[in-house]
Structure formats: C-alpha cells, structure tokens
Amino acid sequence: MPESSTSDTRERLISSAADLIAASPGEDFSLRAVCDAAGVKMPTLYHFFGSKQGLIDAVVAHGFDLYLGEKSAMESSGDPIQDIRAGWDAHVAFGLANPGFYTLMYGKVRPGYSPAAQSRPSEILRGLADRAADQGRLVVPPEQAAAHVLVTNIGVTLRQIVLARPDPALSAAVREGTIAAITGTAERPAAPLTTAVEIAAARPEILGRTQTQLLVEWLTTIAAHQED
Amino acid sequence: MPESSTSDTRERLISSAADLIAASPGEDFSLRAVCDAAGVKMPTLYHFFGSKQGLIDAVVAHGFDLYLGEKSAMESSGDPIQDIRAGWDAHVAFGLANPGFYTLMYGKVRPGYSPAAQSRPSEILRGLADRAADQGRLVVPPEQAAAHVLVTNIGVTLRQIVLARPDPALSAAVREGTIAAITGTAERPAAPLTTAVEIAAARPEILGRTQTQLLVEWLTTIAAHQED
DNA sequence: ACAGAGCTATAGCATTGATATGAACGGAGC
DNA sequence: GCTCCGTTCATATCAATGCTATAGCTCTGT
C-alpha cells in the first residue's frame, strides 16, 4: 500500500502547515518550521508542492474543504433567500473560528490574484442567486446579487478579524441590508401599500372584520391609482 | 541647514518605497531595492524607520495624506448622507487608482493589526454618522452606521482590486444598499403603515376626504397596536 | 534478482531583514 | 581653536528564508 505512506506524508505536511498558520494567524510561516513539525526535510515538501505557493494553495483547498464540509451539513432549507442567510452566518462563523485559513483565502489582497478554490463557495452562492431570480425574488441580475452578497460578507468578516472583535450585530445588520438591497424590499414605491395590506389582514381583530375588509379595499384602490 | 538634507533623505526613501509599491501592487518589496532607488545604504533606512514595518507605516501615513488631501477638496456638501455617498466614491476611486497603497492600508489582514492611520478616515465617517443621527436620519446607532459603511466600502474596494476589474455598478449597488440600511428606508416594521398614510393623504381625491380620513385613522390604530 | 519509479536526505546558493562597528560631518561650549 | 557630541551614513556581517542540484534509499513489477 504505497498510497498510505505517500498520502500520509503529504497530509502531515498540510496538517503541520495548517497548525502553524492557525497558531499565528495572518503571520507568515517558514517552510522549515513546517518540515520540522512534519518530521521531513525541505526537498520532500518541494516534491509534493513545488513551491511555497503550492503548499499554500493546498492548505487553502483543505480549508475550503473544511468550510464546505461544515456548510453542506445544513444546506437547502428550500428557500434560497433563507439559504443565503444561513450561508452568510456560516461564512462569518468560519472566518472568526479559523482566521488563519480565512486570511489566506480572502485576506491576501493582490491585484488579479484569487485562489482557484475561492470559486467554489462563489458558485454555490451564484446557484442560490439564480434560484432566487427564477422565483422572482430579486430586483437585480443574479450575478450582481451574488457579487453583492459575497463582497459584503467577506468585508464584514475581514473587518471583524482585523479588529479581533466579533460583532454579531454588525454582521446581522449588513446581512439584512444586503438582502434587502438585492430583494428590493426597500425601493418599490408600491410596496408600502401592499405591506400595509398584509399587516392589516394579519390582525383583523384590531378594526374588526368589516372595517378591515374595507380598509384593504381602499388601500388596493389607492395602489391601483399609483400605477399610473 | 541640516534639516533640509535629513528631511530630503527621509522623503526620498518614502517616495522610493511608494514607487516600488506602486510598481508591483500587493507584492512584497525589498528594502535593498528601496535603498538603491534612494541612493542610500540600509543602515540609513534603519536609522530613519527602525524596521521594515516602520517604513511601511510611514508609507501608509503618506498614502492617507494623499487620500485625505484629495478628499478634503470636496468636503461638506451640507447633507451628511450625501457626504457619505461622496466619501464612498472617493474611497473606491482612491483604492482603484492606488492599489499598492490601498492593499497596505486595508489589504494586510492580520488579527488585531490595524495601522494607526486607518483611524483618520474612520473618524471622519463617524463624524458624518453623528451629524446624520443628530438630524434623525439614522435608524441605527451612529457607531454602527459608520462601521456598516466602512466595512462594505472596504469590502467592495478590496474585491475590485483582487479581481482587477472595476465594477461601478456593483459599487453603487452596495453603496445604496448600505445607505438604505442605515437610514432605514427598508426595515422599520411600522414604516409601511406610515408610508401608506403618507401616500393616501397625498391623494385624497381617490377615496374622497371622509374615507381618506377614516383610512388614516384606522391605519394609525393598527400602527399603535403594532408597537406592542 | 534486477531495473525503474517514487520518495527523501545532504549540502549549498542567493536573497532577505536586521545589526555591530565605526567614520565623516557640523554645531556647542570652554 | 579645539574638543565633545549628536546626526547621518558606509563596510561588513549574521541568521533566516525560499529554493535547488545531486545523489541515495525503498518499494514495486517483472
């Protein structure tokens, strides 16, 4: 069984690198330290990964496996918008729990450089946005909605990492602001009337059944005139 | 006049470093290259800045001077929300025009590390948020509004840098989504009722004066019950 | 048993950030 | 005028880093 030993060394190198990165998140790490921790010498590392960037890529891919592994356990609530919400929170939680991985994945800003593994969560998000668009839930093209969510989600996560201070309220505010922006809860001028109808219809005991029905009728009349 | 020469060498070092950084944005740079470009040897650099981080800090401070210099030219439109809009666009424009500086300022993500110079634009933003709050324009505490704007503004700028592709539509969408979120155009549960009242009151001819008055009264009743 | 492929070690290179030592220079005080 | 001292800068060097050339080891397939 050669693959046991080969795979073992490779995984041990990745695991050692991951440990070092997790031990000093955001800091640079030394290949020799990785080799010492793995009990190997440098040419072995170079045999498997070719360069430091190759090792980093492998570690990042490993990090995304972890991330998507956690995430896949709770997928598909049925509602794409709700899935985006859950994905947002999972994204932030992963970043705060694994700042070392996360800074490698999204914190190394360099023009034109985005690790290939980044595309996986991006495509999941794009799929959710497409489904939401199919259901008519979006007021912007699905690709822009996905980009909007991704950008703000990464932004709020990175910021919490650099400030070394989780801020659930901020994350929730940005999340809801983003979802409102792509679903257009804010900007349709006719929406307040529709919402008012829903609110009134939900509590018929306040005004009584008859008055509520009349209220709904009147509001609908006004809404009809608004379309002009 | 010794201060002429001292200041000269120091500035020349910063300028050389800035040039190198601008020449290969996001990449690491060598102190020897900086010294060669400035026509000095390394101990001179260490005399002025003490360490590489010291030089980076000086360059970052210089970058913020540039940024705030551009920005101060167009301050104070009178409306704090409008100022936030203009500040957003200036922020993105500076990041895209100076990706080297920008990645040093906001792209080096490391837990607990935020350059001191970052606080300057942050405080300007905080001031605008306070003014907006004084005018009753915000539905969230001013510190959270400022954090929300800063986070999303940085996020959308960093993303455009890593993708090496300006996306004005995305920037505008995120900007307006953020402003909507902090000014509460979207999320107050009582807002639809209030807005419906305004819409109905604005067009009394649709239902007639009496019915409109009654409608407003009923909507207000429901709104009062909503507060429970 | 033999050859070849895959894996690993020894040793070394060039570059990097950082420092110890000391020389040149100009102003301050006796 | 002369010495003293702080500022500024160069020579030389260190330790650590990423990377590689060469060669030896082990295991597999025939």
Characterise the protein shown here.
2 copies of one chain form a homodimer. The radius of gyration of chain A is 24 Å and the shape is elongated. In chain A, 76% of the residues lie in helices and 0% in strands. With 228 residues, chain A is mainly α. The first copy, chain A, has 3 domains: 1-50, Arc Repressor Mutant, subunit A; 63-183, Tetracycline Repressor, domain 2, CATH 1.10.357.10; 191-226, no CATH class. In chain A, helix 4 (52-72) packs across helix 6 (99-107) and helix 5 (80-97) crosses helix 6. The first copy, chain A, starts with a helix and ends with a helix. Chain A has helices spanning 2-23, 31-38, 42-49, 52-72, 80-97, 99-107, 119-134, 142-162, 168-183, 191-202, 204-207, 209-226. Chain A contains 12 helices and no strands. The structure holds a DNA duplex (30 and 30 nucleotides).
